[in-house]
Amino acid sequence: MTEIDTEKLLNDAEALKTFNGDVVEEFRANDGKVGGPVTGDVVLLTTTGAKSGQPRLSPLVYFTIDDRMLVAGSFGGAPMDPAWVHNLRANSKAHVEVGTESYDVTACELPLDERNALYDKVVELMPVFGEYQAKTSRVIPLFELQRI
């Protein structure tokens, strides 16, 4: 696929799992670089499952704004937050892989006023995130990942 079919991925858990697995595999095989339909800088975020307590790996696009690493819980504009958002709200400690580095982080969900100001910058960097916000009535959360 040359373009990401977000609707298919949101409605087909197995397709999403396969897609994410392929991104993780490519990331790890290429020193943190991912091509194909994925654009932007990618971070592999490992959270702790809120219910299971098990590690949960999510490849995400991240944004560096004002020397801060930010991730957006867009889920392609779906009406619900992605599972990793729920996990970070339950346990803010996580682990990231960025390029060839790997380290622990604390995730901090940004308050609404700060989120709004920074989300505009996210959209400037990657306009599709404006489309995601327009597709949903929920406020897409932004998290800062702070190295421990």
What would you say this structure looks like, in words?
- This protein has 148 residues and is an alpha+beta fold.
- It has one domain: Pnp Oxidase, Chain A (Roll), CATH 2.30.110.
- It has helices at residues 6-11, 13-29, 83-90, 112-125, 128-135, and strands at residues 41-48, 55-65, 68-72, 93-98, 101-109, 142-147.
- Strands 1-2-3-6-5-4 form a six-stranded antiparallel barrel.
- The mean pLDDT is 91.
Helix/strand-derived class?
alpha+beta
Question: At CATH's second level, what is the architecture?
Answer: Roll
CATH level-four homologous superfamily name: Electron Transport, Fmn-binding Protein, Chain A
Look up the CATH topology: Pnp Oxidase, Chain A
Helix and strand succession?
Answer: HHEEEHEEHHE
Our count of domains comes out at 1
Uncertain spans, ≥5 residues at pLDDT below 50? none
Helix % is 25-40%
Summarize the main sheet: 6 strands, antiparallel, barrel
| Ends apart, CA distance between termini | 37 Å
The total beta strand count reads 6
Looking across the biggest beta sheet, what order are the strands in? Answer: 1-2-3-6-5-4
What portion of the residues fall into strands of 2 or more residues?
25-35%
Could you say which overall geometry the principal axes of the C-alpha atoms support? Answer: globular
Overall residue-averaged pLDDT value: 91
Class, according to the CATH hierarchy?
Mainly Beta
Q: Count the DSSP helices.
A: 5
- Give Rg in angstroms: 14 Å
